[in-house]
Amino acid sequence: MRLIKSSLKLKSDRLFINDIKHQRANIDLKSINSIYLIGAGKATARMALAVCELLEDKISGGAITIPYGSNGGFDDVFVTHASHPIPDASGVKGTQKMIKILQKTTPTDLVFVLISGGGSSLMPLPSKNLSLNEKRYVTNSLILSGASIEEINVVRKHLSQIKGGQMLRYKNKECRLVSLIISDVINDKMDVIASGPTCPDTSTYEDAARVLRKYGLWNKEHHGAKSVIYHGIMNHQPETLKPGDAILRRVTNFLIGNNDVACTAAVNYLKKREIETHKLGTTFDGEAKYLGRRLAILARGLAKKRRPIAFIQGG
Prior knowledge:
By secondary structure, this protein is α/β, with parallel strands linked by helices. It is 35% helix and 21% strand.
């Protein structure tokens, strides 16, 4: 909620937006007919609550998807609970509700898309002729094969009807759309976060095939996924949204939070309490269990000190 409140300011009928990359926007709400909220992620419920508190009765409706067990209840915003990190049928239904909202937009409407970690699995909509189980199976195979999140998302985008910027194709072309994004990936690549539903994508079906071949999955039993990718390579179905597409003219993606923001906040909190604090970095990757062992060794070496010490790191 703090990230939303620090990024959005309402003054009379003007909405001012800024992000951690110093990108800014100034929207005259008097020119807006309806405002909608959509999105998905582990932090999306709190994000939606903050936006609703700021804009109050200006919100006309919306649909968000959050993990099972998360709290979230809003006037005029439909909340779907779905599975994370493995997508399920409830997540598909939640995504379809978002699409229905986008399809009814007009040139004078404003849509907020609220994206946070977990958005990829909480916003599933497999390509036509591909079942959710098939998509889930190939994604899990990539994870078990050791593929990076960037590689996994290249395949995910090309087995989806909304990822890789394709969500934008459902809205009115002149409708203003603003994405408020909290990054959970290293280097904050906007097209990687939640597989970039509102961001242009430079990868291709050929790239997706290349990833599957790299990990020995092209010749295995992923027939449905292979068929979708093959038809894309043959230009029998559209590519993901590419940079320069005209629809992007009315779209702005704001990065309002990331790993570094979270780690810096933790450091400041601890230092105010006079705890010796060391920030080790925010670009660690790999298996958490191995990193945990190294942290344990570090802590063991400091166990004899008589004052509290904190180490902050992220990735």
